[in-house]
Design a protein that fits this description.
Elements lengths: L5 H12 L4 H23 L8 E5 L5 E3 H15 L4 E6 L6 E2 L9 E9 L10 E9 L21 E7 L3 E6 L4 E7 L4 E6 L10 E3 L10 H11 L11 E2 L5 H11 L2 E4 L14 H14 L3 E3 L19 E4 L1 H12 L1
Parallel strand pairs: 3-5, 11-12, 11-13
Antiparallel strand pairs: 1-2, 3-4, 5-6, 6-7, 7-8, 8-9, 9-10, 13-15, 14-15
Helix pairs in contact: 2-3, 4-7
The chain binds 2,5-anhydro-1,6-di-O-phosphono-D-glucitol and manganese (II) ion (MN) (2 copies).
Length: 333
């Protein structure tokens, strides 16, 4: 098999499809390099003093793990000096991070969830990094949070790295979804799946069932119909998976179909779901749509949601198209 590296893939995309400008190519390579560094830290575990809590809280009041902080630092440092960015925003930082004056300012803005699935770090279960790329508005001047308030449909690239039995990078620049596997000996990303497509039909769903008593009626109905199995209205048996790392759940769905749900529930109406629009829902929705799937908040396409604040949360339903359409239609009923 002829090996195609991430660099070669990006150069060829730029040359043939003109879909990746040089500055965006640099950005993707820098993010991929940072993910390689994070992967290295992750794999050290207890040998690298990376496990456990950092004894700090992020803006959302969640206790930060050491690896949340380390991964955030790695992404910031890697992306500051290249001249490809105007500003960054992270799940782990209260406000945006403009590029320091000593470096040239580029035309892109990068958003990330540096470490997704934090509860899995200390138990050696798959975790990941999610990123989203926006274009800085024309004539922007000094970047502010306002400049980040673009809908997911404006993303020019999105991706995630999953640190599991293998480290993989899944990427879209709006022209399909490709997956690269990290060759640890060579230190390079090798293209291992081209044009990934989410299987249309599925018998798998992912949701945190422990919240069932709090769900709204449309989610109750959708899940109970699946649980009823072959003698219920769906006339087939379903299987359930919940990894508690969105990256790992989405990665499974990308490969063998299924639906992932993190609904809003009746506990706290000021908290519409758990997942964050800008760092989790938008990039994953772009990847899923590019792979032929669908992503909604139960009512509308996630990529059409106009953001009003950086750390906004949204309900998420994503994966195989017919399933997402079904649960979305139950919300309209
Ligand atoms: P993060 O570690 O970035 O805070 O994200 C965790 C998210 C997501 O990855 C996962 O699907 C979900 O939280 C798990 O939530 P539960 O604890 O409710 O299972
Ligand atoms: Mn996350
Ligand atoms: Mn996180």
């Amino acid at each position: 098999m002829k090996r195609v590296s991430l660099t070669q893939y990006l150069v060829e995309e730029q040359r043939h499809n003109n879909s990746i400008p040089a500055e965006l190519r640099l950005l993707i390579e820098v993010v991929a390099r940072a993910c390689k560094t994070i992967s290295h830290s992750v794999s050290k575990g207890a040998l690298g003093d990376i496990l456990g809590s950092a004894d700090t809280e992020n803006i959302q009041g969640e206790v930060q793990k050491k690896l949340d902080v380390i991964s955030n630092e790695i992404l910031l440092e890697a992306n500051e000096w290249g001249g490809h960015l105007a500003a960054m925003a992270s799940e782990e930082m209260e406000s945006i991070h403009p590029i320091p004056n000593r470096y040239p300012m580029g035309e892109y803005m990068l958003l990330f969830d540096p470490l997704d699935g934090s509860s899995n770090i200390d138990v050696n279960v798959s975790i990941g990094t999610i990123f989203s790329v926006l274009k800085a508005p024309d004539g922007m001047g000094t970047p502010t949070e306002e400049h980040f308030m673009q809908p997911g449909s404006a993303q020019v690239a999105a991706g995630y790295a999953v640190y599991g039995p293998q480290t993989m990078l899944v990427l879209t620049t709006g022209n399909g979804v490709n997956c690269f596997t990290l060759d640890r000996e060579m230190g390079s990303w090798v293209l291992t799946s081209r044009n990934m497509t989410i299987p249309e039909t599925t018998k798998e769903f992912a949701i945190n069932m422990s919240n069932q008593r709090h769900w709204h009626p449309p989610v109750q109905r959708y899940v109970s119909e699946m649980l009823a199995g072959s003698t219920g209205p769906r006339e087939k048996d379903f299987n359930m998976r919940w990894i508690a790392s969105m990256v790992a759940d989405v990665h499974r769905i990308l490969n063998r179909g299924g639906i992932f749900m993190y609904p809003a529930d009746m506990r706290d109406t000021s908290m519409p779901g758990k997942l964050r629009l800008m760092y989790e829902a938008n990039p994953m929705a772009m990847i899923v749509e590019q792979a032929g799937g669908a992503a909604t908040d139960g009512r509308q396409r996630i990529l059409d949601i106009p953001p009003h604040k950086l750390h906004q949360r949204v309900p998420v339903f994503l994966g195989s198209k017919s399933e997402v359409e079904r649960v979305t239609s139950y919300h309209a009923a």
